[in-house]
Amino acid sequence: MNSVLVFKTSITSKGEIKQLKPVLNTLIAKNDYWNFDLEDCDNIFRVETKTVAPNSILQLFKSFGFYCEELV
Description:
This protein is of the alpha+beta class. The chain has helices at about 15-25, 55-65, and strands at about 5-10, 35, 45-50, 70.
């Protein structure tokens, strides 16, 4: 069963998403799904996954210099 993880981020452009895309595709399994909603005031990052822990995503964003906070 997939978990849905939702994060508030500092991502504001498609260029920043493009920068993260290769790493996100590596971290997030082939059958899982991720997307950004830049029209939302919190610049939402959403992941449907069976395997990725929220802490892995938080660390990834931080390593690229972006803010990321899990919304629960």
